[in-house]
């Protein structure tokens, strides 16, 4: 168990709980859930500019990363169709992928098709079921895609002022404003309690909060003196108890709970808010195509990793449809902004292309 590993290395409960957040991030799991230790490893195994386990902000926001990839692809001759929904994968008489059809009727022909969509969208919506093995379809249908995440984007008219580290007199950001700030993480038992509430269909009354202020490092994100605050919160169930809808009342009630918690650490925060955007698990699914709102396209539990991701015998990025490859977070090695699945899938696809 993760908690046993942390107990072997650390004494401070707040430190152990803070580290434990990376073991449950994006997962409907508790620090006491078997296998949660792998998720922590997954989040610290990489590096940033030579520094192992480090994370960073993208200048201009995450959209700037997509733009950089798009520009690099376009420079090599790629054609990009934005805001064009895919209707289905085109298949030849031999069952091989031959391109895609857009919802406006446009057909894009290709010898290979790589899908960055989730396994659920790729194989349950874009490919005829009769073209896939029954056991494969069942595996994709039964995959655990539960998500505990509600993302809240906030605009504030001043820098948050935390009781534990008061702001400077000149109002300039301090080192802790440039980091990920973890709230309601004084003990691992608090994370477990928050998980337990959500597992019974109730948004956590004291949610786990990871607070970042990207405008401190990237001032162009907000007007002078103002800031944008990113709140990654858990735990919120995808389906509320009693079948209640995630309507505006439910969204605002949960957001108010989150803001009340932040207010306890940084008095005046609520008064500084001038705008907020609340994205519950159903919102993340509807807007971004994340199954169940899961940021990893599926749980990162040990039964859904390595040679079983997305399904046994199909972990090499190839799919049951010849010429169709999975290159997103639903493929090995899973979620995270690292591009490993895409790079690996491209190499496999190029290897096959050379034989066509």
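^ Assign residues to that structure.
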């Amino acid at each position: 168990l993760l908690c046993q590993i942390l107990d072997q290395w650390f004494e401070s409960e707040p430190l152990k709980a803070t580290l434990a957040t990376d073991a449950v991030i994006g997962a409907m799991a508790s620090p006491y859930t078997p296998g949660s230790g792998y998720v922590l490893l997954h989040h610290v195994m990489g590096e940033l500019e030579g520094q192992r386990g480090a994370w960073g902000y993208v200048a201009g926001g995450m959209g700037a990363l997509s733009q950089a990839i798009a520009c690099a692809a376009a420079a090599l001759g790629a054609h990009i169709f934005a805001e064009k929904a895919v209707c289905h994968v085109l298949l030849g008489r031999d069952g091989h992928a031959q391109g895609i059809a857009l919802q406006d009727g446009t057909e894009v022909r290709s010898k290979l098709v790589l899908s960055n969509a989730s396994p659920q969208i790729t194989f349950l919506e874009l490919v005829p079921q009769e073209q896939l093995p029954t056991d494969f379809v069942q595996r994709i249908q039964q995959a655990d895609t539960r998500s505990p995440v509600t993302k809240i984007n906030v605009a504030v008219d001043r820098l948050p002022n935390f009781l534990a580290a008061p702001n400077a007199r000149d109002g300039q950001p301090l080192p802790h404003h440039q980091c990920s700030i973890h709230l309601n993480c004084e003990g691992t038992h608090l994370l477990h309690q928050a998980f337990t509430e959500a597992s019974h269909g109730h948004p956590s009354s004291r949610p786990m909060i990871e607070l970042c202020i990207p405008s401190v490092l990237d001032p162009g994100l907000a007007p002078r003196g103002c800031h944008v605050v990113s709140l990654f919160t858990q735990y919120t169930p995808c389906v509320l108890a009693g079948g209640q809808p995630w309507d505006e009342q439910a969204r605002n009630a949960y957001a108010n709970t989150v803001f009340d918690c932040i207010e306890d650490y940084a008095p005046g925060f609520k008064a500084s808010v001038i705008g907020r955007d609340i994205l519950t698990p159903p919102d993340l699914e509807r807007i971004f195509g994340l199954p169940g709102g899961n940021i990893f396209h599926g749980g990162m539990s040990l039964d859904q990793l390595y040679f079983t991701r997305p399904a046994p015998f199909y972990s090499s990025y190839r799919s049951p449809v010849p010429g169709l490859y999975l290159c997103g977070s639903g493929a090995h090695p899973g979620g995270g902004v690292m591009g490993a699945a895409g790079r690996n899938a491209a190499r496999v696809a190029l290897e096959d292309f050379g034989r066509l």
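Residues 78-144+296-354 form a domain with the FAD/NAD(P)-binding domain fold (CATH 3.50.50.60).
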